[in-house]
Amino acid sequence: MQTDYKPADAIRTPFLRIDYAKLMHNLDKAQTTIKGYRAGLRPHFKAHKCLRIAELQIGVGAVGITCATLDQASLLADNGVTEILVAYPVIVDQANRTMTERLCSERVVTLGISSTEGARRLAEIRVGRPMKVAIEVDVGCKRTGVYPSEVAVLARTVLDLGLQLVGIFDYPGHGYMPGQSERAARDEVQIMSIAFEMLHNAGFENFFVSGGSTPTLNHGSAGVITDYRPGTYVFGDSQQLALGSVAKEEIALTVEATVVEANSDRVVIDAGGKALGRDSPQWLSGYGTALESDLRVERLFDHHGVFPPIPAARVGDRMRVIPNNANSAVNQHGYFWVDMQDRRGLLRWRIDSSGR
Fold this sequence. Notes:
- The chain is of the alpha/beta class and 356 residues long.
- It has 11 helices and 18 strands.
- The strands form 2 sheets. Strands 1, 2, 11, 12, 13, 14, 15, 16, 17 and 18 form a 10-stranded mixed β-sheet that branches.
- α6 (148-160) packs across α7 (181-201).
- The protein is elongated, with a radius of gyration of 21 Å.
C-alpha cells in the first residue's frame, strides 16, 4: 500500500532497515550454494519472523520453513506454509497441548524430540493419524540432541508409541567460533552419517537428514545431508562478518540511529540494547559495527550506544549500525523498513512473530 512508504528521514530512529537488493542476493546465493550440494534449503524463520520474507524464501526454492517455537509454527501454518519443522525438543504440557494438537492434526508440522519422555508426551495427543516427529542428534554443540548410538533406540520408541519418524536433524553450533566453522561442518557430516547408518541398519527408510547453520553453510557437501537450515544468511550481521560467513557488501540489515551527542572522546547514538540487542560473544569486541566504517559500539545502555570519537560526526546525523546478532535485533522491533531502491522511500514490513 502507498501509505506503507515513508521517506527515511520521516521515520523515527532507531529502526531496522533492510536493503532489498542485498536481501534477494543473499536468498539467491544460498539457493545456488545448496543446489551445489544436491540438497534442499529449509531456512530458519526465527532470524526474521516475517511472513513476507518467508514467502520470498519459498519463492526462490526453499523446500520448507524451520521455526523454533509452536507460536511460530502456528503463525506459519495459519498463513499457508505447508512444510514446517519445529527444530526444538517440544515438550507437551497443559499450556501448549491444544496448540500442539491442532498443528499435528493439520499434518503440516514436524515436531522435534530428543528424549523418550518428549516422545511419550506427544503420543498422548490423539489426532487420528500418526504425528510426524524428527529426532535431534548432537553433532558437537553440546546443547540438545541424542548421540548417534542412541538414535535407533529412540526411533524404535517413536514407532512403538504410534508416532511417525520422518527425519533427524542437528545444529552444528560449535561453528560459531572463529576458525571452527569448517571443522563443525565436517563433524556434522561425520556424525549424521553414523546416525543415518544406525537408523538404516535398524530398518528405517525414507527420512530426511537436516543440518546446517549460517557459519557452516559455505562448508557443506553433497552426501548424507538432505537439507540445510541457515537463518541469519538472509541478513548477515557482525558475528557473521567476523566468522567470514558473509562479506560486508552483503549485509542487508542495519539499525538506523541518530547521533545525540558528539564530542572529543565519544559519539553517542540513540540505539542501545533495546534496539541492537545485547549479544557480545567473548571473541567479538563491542556491540555492533558502523556500516560506514569498522568502528565498533564500545559501550551499551538501554537507549544509548557509545562509539569512540568520530571526527565527522555531528549531532543529528543518521548512522547505520550492523548488530552483532541480527536475530536478537529483530526481536526488539515490530517492523522492518525496506529500501526498495525506488523514489517512494522505505516500505514497512511487519515482523509477524515479535517476541516468540
